[in-house]
Amino acid sequence: MLKILGRASSINVRKVLWLCDELGLTYQREEWGEGFTSTHDARFLALNPNAMIPVIQDDDFTLWESNTIIRYLANRYGGEWLYPTMPRERARVDQWIDWQATELNTAWRYAFMSLVRQSPAHQNARLLAAACKGWTYTMGILNQQLQKTGRYVAGERFTLADIPIGLSVNRWYETPLEHASYPAVRAYYERLTGRDGYVKWGRNGTP
Question: Where's the GST C-terminal domain (predicted)?
Answer without folding.
Answer: 86-207
